[in-house]
Amino acid sequence: MLTTQAIFDRYQQVRSRFPKVTLPRVTVEISSLLDIADDIDAFVFDAFGVLNVGDTMIPGADRRLDQLRARGCAIRILTNAASYDRSGAIAKFKSLGIGVEDDEIITSREAALLYLGKGQCGVIAAKTDQLHDLPATVIRLGDKAADYDAVDQFLFLSTADWTPARQDLLTAAMQRHPRNLLIGNADLAAPRDDGFSREPGHFGHLIADLFPDKVRFFGKPFSEVYDLIETSLSTVAPDRIAMCGDTLHTDILGATARGWRTVLVTQDGLFAGFDTQAFSEQACLFPDWRLARI
pLDDT under 50 in the chain at which residues? Predict the structure, then answer.
């Protein structure tokens, strides 16, 4: 079973692949995002651990978004979840009871698809993913080794149906013929109702340990998703944007690298039940603000 400490330690091990940042060692405790709403023009939210845990909305998340909108703050949801396209993401949040507009959601999947190269693509996706936003010629990878050898590049979107045997097939195919591997979700893990799930980033870093020049990660903390957010907030200065997330190495590190402000949310995500200050000290990653729930 994955633990908070194990996930944190792995993020530390692969940190050389992340943007470089230096942070002041000061974090201010706040009771809600309304405490800082006058200083921020746009709030960007991670989903898992901040707005929801698995298929359950965190109490009050929907109300807080509405309150911030009423204060004139722009809202964006920046999710590393790549198991569904934009329409699927909107449907997911609506099923949780969180109303969002189309322009309020940015996904790491969108960023990854912008960098899909020419040639045949092998895609690792959930069975339920219709792949409507991908070329019709993609090969959905499963248990056939020949399919892994037949493609020119790999796109890893979801671990929903991924198995150790399939990871072995991917690794063996890369060893026979190293090709580009795009990881559509850079997260190592995500909080669920029954614990943590392994996400594409976990498996991507295992491949990157062997072929560091062939693996490219998309989503927080990597730059492409921040480009998409800033394009959608073209009139907002970076230091008037606040990223609200539950993970130091993705949400806090990535936003800081862009010059954004940061809020660490502690009660329901990666660090639920832990004193986050000790983890901040070890990683030298300090959010501007910290609170239990938004």
Answer: none
